[in-house]
Write a structure and sequence with these properties.
about 260 residues; transmembrane helix; ADTRP_AIG1; Androgen-induced gene 1 protein; membrane
Amino acid sequence: MALIPSQVLRVAILLSYFSILCHYKALDMPAHQTYGGSWKFLTFIDLVIQAVFFGVCVLIDVSSLLTKGGASREQERQLRKLIGLRDWMMAVLAFPVGAFVVFTFWTLYLYDRELIYPRLLDNFIPQWLNHGMHTTVLPFIIIEMRTTHHRYPSRSWGLAAVCCFGIGYILWTCWVHQVTGVWVYPVLEHIAPLARVVFFSVMTVVICVFYVLGEILNSYIWDQPHTESLSCSGQEDTEILFQQRKRWIRRQQSCQAV
């Protein structure tokens, strides 16, 4: 049996994201008062993505619990839609964007923190909140991938969706600069226009690489022989529980017919 049920872990992670978002929004930072507010930062967008994703996961857990053993066809259909949304969000947004934020932030931070997170921000953001935004995101999403099987879309469609997100954020960043005359991240102030094009192109490739890595990691975890033992230890995928309920309902209907 698992030490901590996956459902409890998801609730705990969701509550932690709510706490991080509330503390972050409560910060009295000048950047929050300018055009775009918090939404011009990829870190904040990622926090919202993670909170919504784990919110969907918890909603599926609650729905599965409430309908266990007696789900109607309409309830089954709605549950399937939620599971499909959860899997799509994991593949296209939660894992690639979360991994991208952690990787790029700490890479630039270790190279020269002034390019991404100036020391001035230490006066506004405590260290625990910084790690909540830029560190724990990756282990949280890996825990979710480890405890629940997620169905990835075809690679071409998945990469297309990730590219659309990346390009959309780049265009949003350029628009904020057009309006305010200031780049969202200091690193963009220190490079020439052509170098920015190269930088944006490389970042788009990197987030696509993280999509592929997430797909490979998901397949590695769930295509191994130990997958069955994981399910038996109380870490079942909601889809497996869903199929078990359907078989139970069919047996009940057969007994009633007899």
